[in-house]
Amino acid sequence: MTSPLTIQLPDEDATRQLGARLGKLLPDGAVVALNGPLGAGKTRLVQGLAGAIGLDPREVVSPTFTLVQEHRGARTLYHFDAYRLRDDDEFLAIGVDEYFYGTGLCVVEWAEKVASCLPPEHLEIRLTPVDETTRRAEITAVGEVYIQVLLQLAAR
User: Fold this and answer.
1) Interval 61-82: pLDDT, tens
2) What does the pLDDT look like over 114-124, one tens digit per residue?
3) What is the mean pLDDT of the chain?
4) What burial class does residue 58 get, using C-beta atoms within 10 Å of its C-beta: 0-12 exposed, 13-18 middle, 19+ buried?
5) CATH code at position 62
6) Residue 1: its pLDDT value, please?
7) Radius of gyration of the chain from Cα atoms?
8) How many CB atoms are located within 10 Å of the residue 155 CB?
9) How many structural domains comprise the chain?
10) How many Cβ atoms sit within 10 Å of the Cβ of residue 81?
11) Domain extent for 76
12) Global confidence as pTM
């Protein structure tokens, strides 16, 4: 695990732009653990990522009631939401290993609730509200592939 890269995001557009930069850097099969309180911008970040990989960002909404949304295009995005899950078993029951070890990009909102289910290598992003519009993103790489993504992200 690396020291986190911290980025100030002054508004929703900056949050979407961070997602877009990630979408261009993440390799196929990447897993992103996304954490932060309600209203922190988690879904906005995923919308930016979706747009960068050729998907319609307007189709990306919080998957709270469906647990996983599949968005297929040039690249596939699996958007999970663990907010309403009672335990790891519920998360594992949706077949997350098949998603995590496939070629699509996997983003898990509320990932701290299912941290023990995440693959040993992934990218962790914590979004924290600073004020009404500003967010702080703390991005941590867990594993060599993600260290490279973090270094490229920091270089921009």
Assistant:
1) 776 667 888 889 889 999 999 9
2) 999 999 999 99
3) 91
4) exposed
5) 3.40.50.300
6) 67
7) 14
8) 6
9) 1
10) 24
11) 5-155
12) 0.92
